[in-house]
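JOB MANIFEST
job_type = single_chain_structure
chain_count = 1
residues = 93
[input]
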Amino acid sequence: MPATLNTEPNIAAADDFYEALIETHRDLAPEQSGLVNAKLILLLANHIGDLDVLRQAMAHARAGIAPVGDGSAGVAGPPARAAPVGGPRKEAS
């Protein structure tokens, strides 16, 4: 049976992950941040290792994003089912 992309909340400490992700990008120029994102994507894709799951993830990430030059602002709206990363964020105190 082919593997399926899990889009349900699956990160035990979602807020901690989010903070670590933000910290990873702290003090980087936009170009450096983009490079970090590209490297992170490739590392995680290698870890997943299943081309079918990776294709599902790419299609899900691209859903609702209009191609450049089609006259839209670039975003056509949210996909039918957005991939949650962990639920609501805690308010800063």
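[summary]
The CA atoms of residues 46 and 91 lie 34 Å apart.
The chain has a mean pLDDT of 85.
exit_status = 0
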